[in-house]
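Internal ticket #5521
Category: modeling
Description: The requester needs a full-assembly model to guide mutagenesis choices. All entity lines are attached below as received. Residue total reported by intake: 224.
Assigned to: D.W.
Attached entities:
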Amino acid sequence: QKEVEQDPGPLSVPEGAIVSLNCTYSNSAFQYFMWYRQYSRKGPELLMYTYSSGNKEDGRFTAQVDKSSKYISLFIRDSQPSDSATYLCAMDNFNKFYFGSGTKLNVKP
Amino acid sequence: GAVVSQHPSWVICKSGTSVKIECRSLDFQATTMFWYRQFPKQSLMLMATSNEGSKATYEQGVEKDKFLINHASLTLSTLTVTSAHPEDSSFYICSAEDRGENTIYFGEGSWLTVV
């Protein structure tokens, strides 16, 4: 079983939709949780990182962590075509990082 | 947010030559940096973990004599692809760990084409 599981997609939504991206993990020792966005032919860009269970909001993005279920989510409100990218989740266990395989999102105008 | 600079962005080299890619953390000290390889439409593949002042730790299947990693300072790690072959053509990405924020930041990546 992989440490971090993420549906590769692709996920295709119309502009303006609410997008939900998810990852599950198996190691309850993970403490920090991150979401990265990667555009084609570019390095991943850090979007958000959280430490505890609960929600963290930044503009149109909300990161949610449920440690009891070992489940994290990234919500994108009012999605835009410019949000089309691959989204990677990542988590940290004592400075060893584990990545999901990435979900490809396509927001159609 | 913190910035990690990777250079060059694009490089073309002849088969048999060596090429060096630099990764710099611009506004934080990075004890640990990571090197990845990414094939088209695939996820990141961790090649090695680079720790300042010590030897890099390579992932299984990665040839350490072919992919030389040096992390001589807290802000610079280099990856040298030695005796490059066309099958080494790929997108190489570095990342640096910001221990103050307990997260990692990625460079923009380097496209290597071996002809």
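Resolution: model delivered.
Comment from assignee: Chain B touches chain A through 22 residues (CB under 8 Å).
Ticket closed.
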